[in-house]
Amino acid sequence: MEDNEKKPQQKQAVRGKHVKKDFNHMKRKNVEHGFAVISLMVMIPVFFGISLFLFVFPRSTVSNIEKRKLATFPEFSFEDYFSGKFTADIATYYDDTVPFRDDFKTAGYNFKGLFGIHTEEEVKVVGKPIAVVNKDKDESSKPSEASKPEQQTSANAADPGKPQESETASEAASQTESSSGEVQTFDGEYTVENGIIVVKEEGHYRALELFGGGTGNAYVNALNNINKDLGGKVQVYSMIAPLASEYYTPTSYSEYTASQKECFDSIASRLDDGIISVDIDTPLGQHVTEDIYLRTDHHWTPLGAYYAAQTFASAAKVDFKDLSTYKKEEIPDFVGTMYAFTGDANIKNDPEVFTYYKPDNVDSTRAYYYDTAFNYEGDGNFFNGVGDPSSAYLVFMGGDEQIVKVKTNVKNGKRLMIVKDSYGNAIPGYLFGAYEEIYVADMRYFQPNLIDFVQQNKVNDLLFAMVVYSAVGGNADNLETLRTQNKGQTIVDAAP
């Protein structure tokens, strides 16, 4: 009897547990439902606001931080549509041209800078790490994406990721001079951002792209082929500019960048005998205590370009005027591309003066501007005004995406053509006293056949002037394209 009396009580207890469990479950479901409703009520206006912002506000067309024109809306073609390129280009357009792009980019950099405490001696790697360069096999065209070696844990072990303290102060620069007179490298405080070393030297910051090496095979083959096509009737010159890291890399980080001089020598040794290779690595190395490279930008300074042009003029045996004859112009508060590349606030907050030089016959010259297919668009000055100091490098011709012909007051029948990347923009002004006409074309955009263009415009000297990354990287492939594209065209110059 006692067992029978206990059974209903047990069933009632179990039933009570189920009721309590169901109530808690319902309570959780109600709370989750409430949060879902609140999230939906918040997110719908947010997404609506973002969509409205993207479609109502004007889209950005130029990035002053990145120093480039942004993507344009693609033109429709059935071929691009069915291949998927048209829709992919639309996506690129909307992604690249977000309204107030530079403002958002700056805000993002500032936000990232709030995290972490960085010491004076710290090295940090953001984005793609940098590997030790194999200097015996110089085959890559860019810094390796392989992981950086693990740092030593011992306090006394040599740490490849940190500069060694000098006996006086970590800030002091210790320059070492080679037998050739080059000042090669120095020590200083530095960090690493996105594969770029940011060095603190004498109270200022300098950003440096490291060089991973490269064969330059495409460059060598293209120049040799071009030289053959011209049949020895045009003198071809090769002049490759080093990156600033050739001279300013801290000694304690030198194993992460390859010798650019060795790369240049290798390329020069494989060029045909008729091509003159202009070594500017050595003369630039003799002027490293001067401002030959920009601290906040990946280009050299106009002063660095001056020494390069001087070396070319000597090789070409043409007249060249001393810098004292030029008019010096300055654009203060310049911050170049390295802020966009690194996001380092130290670069942004440490602007520099952009100094360039106008030749004494600049008022007697005229620049004629053409589109990339050599359709005449108008004339003007070679040196252009810039409103934003961050666009100072555009003072030369206003940029890259055009062909420019300069007529000077020199009457010697000499014509020079410069095939270049943006490094070459700063060179022509120093040669206004040496040539009657100078043609300037960017290797990335030039559409006519190069051989036809040179021959039909009676060019005497053909100079290839670009930074080392263009010579050993993908840009070099364009040179062979210039030689083979649009053969047999009649080059029509519609300029007055």
Output the keywords:
single chain, 496 residues, alpha/beta, 8-stranded mixed sheet, 3-stranded antiparallel sheet, 14 helices, 33% helix, globular
Strand order of the largest sheet: 7-6-15-13-14-12-10-11
Q: Show unreliable segments.
A: 112-130, 134-190
Number of domains: 3
The number of distinct helices, counting runs of at least 4 residues, comes to 14
Protein architecture, described:
- This protein has 496 residues and is of the alpha/beta class.
- The protein folds into 3 domains: 2-56; 68-112, no CATH class; 214-484, no CATH class.
- Helices cover 33% and strands 16% of the residues.
- The chain has helices spanning 2-56, 78-83, 85-96, 101-112, 217-230, 245-248, 260-270, 281-285, 302-316, 338-342, 345-348, 450-456, 468-472, 477-484; strands at 62-63, 68-69, 189-193, 196-201, 204-209, 235-241, 276-277, 327-334, 352-358, 366-370, 376-380, 403-407, 415-420, 437-442, 461-467.
- It has an 8-stranded mixed sheet with strand order 7-6-15-13-14-12-10-11. The protein has a 3-stranded antiparallel sheet with strand order 3-4-5.
- α5 (217-230) runs parallel beside α14.
- The termini are far apart.
